[in-house]
Specification:
heterotrimer; A mainly alpha (166); B mainly alpha (132); C mainly alpha (126); A: 166 residues; mainly alpha; 2 domains; 3-stranded antiparallel sheet; 8 helices; 11% strand; C: 126 residues; 2% strand
C-alpha cells in the first residue's frame, strides 16, 4: 500500500517537472517512478500506520496549522527586523539556551516542531538529544512560551495536528 | 492592475526583510544571533520574492504559465522545509564547535563582552589541537 | 504597466545586498560564520536566477536551473555543517577539557526537564 502511494506522488512530481504529456515522456515517468517506488517504498511513509480518512484529516489540520505558522513567521520577521535596525541592538539582546522535553511521540511531529521553533519569533532549535530539545532564544520574552510549565502553545498545535490532542 | 500592485508590494516587503537580514548578519554581536537573523529573514524574504514572481506569471493565464507557477510553488515549499533544516545544521555545528558567545549575564557585564570573546574565537579550531 | 524596469531594479538591489553579505563571509571570525553567509547568498541566488528568467521572458527555462540550484545549495550547506561538526568532535576523550574555554558554550538553563539525568554529554556546560 505505501508503495502505491509513493508511486503516485513520484508520478505527480515527474509530470510537474517534465511538463510534457505525450506517450513517451509519460511512459518514462511511469517506468522511473515505478522503479523508485519499488526501491524505496518504505522511506516516504515510514511508520505511518493510520487509515486513509485519518491521513486526509491530518492533511487538512496541517494546512490550518500552516496558516497559523505563516502569521507567526511574519511576526518573527518584524521582530528580527526591529532588532537589527534598532540603534543599539546589544541593549535588547539577551541570548541564552533553554531545554525542554516535549511529549510528542513520532519523529515527523518532532521534525515539524523543531522547524516551527526555528521559524517563530526569537527562537532557534539547536539540537535534539535523548528526546530533549535544546533551543537558543535571543531574548527573555521570546522563550517564555517554551520554558513555561506544561506544553507550550506551539507544542499543543503540533499535538493537535498529529496526535489528536486538543 | 491590482495584481501589479500586489507584485510590487510583495517584492518590496521581501527586499525590506532582506535588508533587515543583511544588517542583522553584519551587526549582531555573536554567531548565534546571526543565525537568528539568517534563518528567519532569509526564508521569508525568499518566499515574498518568489510569491511576487508567481503573481506576475499568473497575469497572463495559460497552461504553461500555470505549470511554471506550480514549479515555483514547489520551490517555495522546498525552501520552507530546507532553510530551517540548514539553519539547524549550521547552529548545531557551531554549538558542537564551541563557538564563543556573547552574553550580558553577570560574568560578562556590559557591551564589551564580545571583545573578550573575540580573543577566544579561535579555540578548538585546528585539527592538530584536537588530536592533542 | 510594464514591470521590467522594476524587476531589473530588484535584481540589482539583491546583488548589492549579496555583496554586503559577502563581508561576513570574508571577515567572519569562524568557519561557521562564513558558512552562514554563503547559505544566505546561495538562497538569494535562486531568487536572482528566477528574476533573470522573468526579465528575459524565459522563466520556464530558468526554473529548472533554479530548482537544481536550490537543491545543490541545501546539500552543500548540510555537508559542510556535518563535516565541521565531525571535525569538532574529540578523537581521544581526554584532551577535550584543555580546549574548552571557561566561557565556551552558551549557558544552559533548566526549564521543565524531567529527564535531565539521561543527558551525560552536556553536563560540563555551566
Amino acid at each position: 500500500m505505501p508503495a502505491i502511494f509513493t508511486f503516485f506522488v513520484m508520478l505527480l512530481f515527474w509530470t510537474a517537472l517534465s511538463g510534457k504529456f505525450d506517450l513517451f515522456h509519460l511512459g518514462m515517468g511511469v517506468f522511473s517512478s515505478g522503479l523508485v517506488a519499488w526501491l524505496s517504498h518504505d522511506l516516504l511513509f515510514e511508520g505511518h500506520t493510520k487509515k486513509l480518512g485519518a491521513t486526509f484529516k491530518e492533511i487538512v489540520f496541517f494546512l490550518r496549522y500552516l496558516l497559523w505558522l505563516f502569521g507567526q513567521i511574519v511576526l518573527a520577521n518584524f521582530h528580527i527586523a526591529g532588532l537589527a535596525l534598532s540603534l543599539h541592538p546589544k541593549k535588547h539582546l539577551d541570548p541564552h539556551i533553554i531545554k525542554f522535553k516535549p511529549s510528542l511521540k513520532t519523529d515527523f511531529a518532532r521534525f515539524v516542531l523543531a522547524n516551527s521553533i526555528t521559524l517563530t519569533p526569537g527562537t532557534v532549535s539547536v539540537r535534539i538529544e535523548n528526546d530533549i530539545f535544546y533551543v537558543h532564544a535571543i531574548d527573555r520574552r521570546s522563550s517564555a512560551d517554551l520554558s513555561g510549565p506544561g506544553p507550550g502553545k506551539m507544542e499543543r498545535w503540533v499535538a493537535w495536528v498529529f496526535e489528536g490532542g486538543s | 492592475m491590482i495584481l501589479d500592485i500586489l507584485v510590487i508590494i510583495a517584492m518590496l516587503s521581501g527586499l525590506l526583510f532582506f535588508v533587515a537580514t543583511t544588517v542583522g548578519i553584519i551587526r549582531f554581536p555573536d554567531f548565534y544571533s546571526r543565525v537568528h537573523a539568517a534563518g528567519k529573514g532569509d526564508t521569508f524574504s525568499t518566499t515574498m520574492f518568489l510569491g511576487g514572481t508567481i503573481l506576475y506569471l499568473l497575469r497572463d493565464f495559460s497552461g504553461s504559465t500555470l505549470l511554471t507557477a506550480g514549479k515555483l510553488l514547489l520551490i517555495v515549499f522546498y525552501i520552507f522545509i530546507a532553510s530551517p533544516t540548514a539553519t539547524h545544521a549550521i547552529i548545531d555545528a557551531g554549538y558542537e564547535f564551541r563557538v564563543p558567545y556573547w552574553t550580558r549575564s553577570s560574568r560578562h557585564k556590559g557591551t564589551e563582552g564580545d571583545v573578550e570573546n573575540e580573543e577566544n574565537m579561535d579555540n578548538g579550531f585546528y585539527p592538530e589541537d584536537l588530536k592533542g | 504597466m510594464n514591470l521590467e524596469q522594476f524587476f531589473i531594479a530588484m535584481a540589482v538591489a539583491i546583488l548589492f545586498l549579496m555583496l554586503c553579505n559577502l563581508y561576513r563571509v570574508v571577515a567572519g571570525p569562524t568557519v561557521i560564520d562564513r558558512m552562514l553567509g554563503m547559505n544566505v547568498i546561495g538562497t538569494k541566488t535562486t531568487v536572482l536566477i528566477v528574476l533573470i528568467g522573468v526579465i528575459d521572458g524565459r522563466v520556464d527555462l530558468f526554473i529548472d536551473i533554479t530548482l537544481a540550484y536550490a537543491l545543490l545549495n541545501f546539500i552543500t550547506t548540510l555537508a559542510a555543517a556535518r563535516f565541521y561538526q565531525r571535525l569538532a568532535q574529540p578523537i581521544p576523550p581526554e584532551p577535550r577539557e584543555s580546549l574548552v574555554a571557561p566561557s565556551a558554550g552558551p549557558d544552559v538553563e533548566e526549564a521543565d526537564v524531567t529527564a535531565a539525568a539521561t543527558d551525560p554529554s552536556r553536563k560540563e556546560t555551566p
